[in-house]
Amino acid sequence: MNLFGKLNFNCVFSSSLDWFHSSRLAEKVGTKKTRFCRETESFYAFCLSHRRYLCYALEGLLPSRPRGRRASTYNLSDNLGYIRGLNGKQKQLIKKLVHICMIDGKKTRSRAIVYKTFHRLAPHGDVIKLLVNAIENVKPICEVKKVRISGTTRLVPSIIATNRQETLAIRWMLESAAKRRMGKKSISLDQCLYAEILEASQKMGIARKKRDDLHKLAEANRSFSHYRWW
Known about the structure:
Elements: H1 6-22, H2 35-49, H3 51-59, H4 88-101, H5 107-121, H6 127-138, E1 142-149, E2 152-159, H7 162-181, H8 189-201, H9 206-220
Antiparallel strand pairs: 1-2
Helix pairs in contact: 1-2, 4-5, 4-7, 5-8, 6-8, 7-8, 7-9
Protein name: Ribosomal protein S7
GO cellular component, one term: mitochondrial small ribosomal subunit
Family: Belongs to the universal ribosomal protein uS7 family.
């Protein structure tokens, strides 16, 4: 017989607490010799106030945390396989994606969005390989900067550092995913980011078009490249 079942849990602890108060131990709670008595009473009071959750825990029925859009946490047990066995560069890339996606310091929420995106990408092959290919296809090689020359503003092309190339690629994919979600509250951000990464890995999508437009602009202004002083 399970004494800690839902039906018997209340009567067991209620009768134990009644016995404690009816005995002489309850009269000696205020003395120094009865520290055990004080702790026992507090334990019984705690059990009575949390009897619902204790019943679930003892029977293995503890409800899981919510997984909806408003949930602050996400169960990572299904996604830990995607971050095991990676080298330092790949781990740094995932950290950068989480940090760029983060708003107002909500890193747990950002990490949940990224791992949900990885979970959606899993049926299409290696998740990390898809992410790396998408970033490689979106990374811009050069950019243009405005330079004031003799009262005229010129667009001077320049080479972009490798670290900034990855940052711009991730930022553009997140911006494209946010544009997809505008006006569609029923679609979550991880769904839009999943679609954008999948298209970018195939050299398609809004982020890829933005990279091509930037390269065309730099090619059109290559005659002003000698003005670059940095």
